Amino acid sequence: MVLSNNDGCIIARSEESKALGIKMGEPFYQVKDMLERNGVAVFSSNYNLYGDMSRRVMSLLSTYTPKLDIYSIDEAFLDLSGMGNADTLTNYCKSMVKDITKGTGIPISLGIAPTKTLAKMASKFAKKYRGYEGVCLIDSDEKREKALRLFPIEDVWGIGRRHAKKLAYHGIHTAWDLTQRSESWIRRELTVTGVHTWKELMGESCISIEELPHKKSICTSRSFPGIGLDRLRDVEEAVANFAASCSRKLREAHTACSSITVFAYTSRFRMDVPQHCIYRSVNFTVPTNDIREIISAAVKILQEDWKEGFHYKKAGVIVWNICEDRAIQSNLFDCINRAKQSALAKAVDEVNRKNGHDTIRMAVQGYGENWKLRNEYVSKQYTTNIRDVIIAKAK
DNA sequence: TCTGGGGTCCTAGGACCC
DNA sequence: TCTGGGGTCCTAGGACCC
Predict the structure, then answer these.
(1) On chain B, which bases lie within 7 A of the protein's CB atoms?
(2) Among A6, A131, A349, A373, which is 20 to 30 Å from A200 by CA?
(3) Does 3.20.20.10 match the CATH number of domain A217-365?
């Protein structure tokens, strides 16, 4: 079983722990004793490991198609159009499954279909039934209807808990039931996104395969351990680090932002203590990804809106209005020497790339441990930290 | 005491324009 | 008694995803 950041919630479970009745998203502390009694292995999140393994899998996938659309850390869409008939495709995909298992040890499931929504459905069948050997193909109306009839509405991509409940009320329990309604009914009840899902289930592709040009917003946020932080200095340090992380993510993606939002709030679970919420945005005159500009804007918002007497439980920084860093609209009244700024940033990034994040940092980022995450059960960074590499002993 | 983090898209409603 | 019609842009909030 794997925990969220701060060892807060349960976010991944093996089949065995599911069988114990552990629910997704359940707070860890509420079931901790029960888990210990049952000998459940518990792990903190280890994003360095997951991120690195994901990159390896994606890199192998990219050798199978010119058009790879990485959807999340563990999912990708591959464009296989024009790559042969049903048999050829199935065999091609079975060799993909074997290669990736061999290359990374990660088991994968593949669904092949005319639309993304159907492909996701097919991949669930591929995972569920061993007979498929990891690959399930939906290439005819008969197969599609059979699959739709077997598929619960709440598992359809794009149908969340709220919509599933509403649809159940209207007697819609499977993906097939949904396709039997009229477009106007779907439009009224589920808006245009629902219409896209509805069309995709019927085999008409509405969600294309493409690499996103760049993100529209980037957020770094954390919950603080215990009752939270009540000193400005501590929250300031955290916010400065969140801002630094946003600026780094912008630079890595070769982008810059025009707006920044800072937020900090007290615990929404504590009804017995006074609540407060800081949430404010400002714009930059010229789009930027500079660590000093972004940190100072973030810290300024926090200082100006800070209210004493509260325990802040969570804070974060969001940067948005993002553009590519080579297409920045300059401003007549800009008084920053941009060339100098970017030369310095480049030098700092180079040092940090070799020596680790934040080797060179802003003073306000500090070294305080007051806001650091709890991760008591973290596994090793087997693939990204030389000290954690597995040692094979020859006997 | 303890309750995650990071995204996208759509809509309604308010503010504004002529 | 009676108070138009047609737009754009922005934001908050809600839905969804992993």
Answers:
(1) 1-11
(2) A131
(3) no
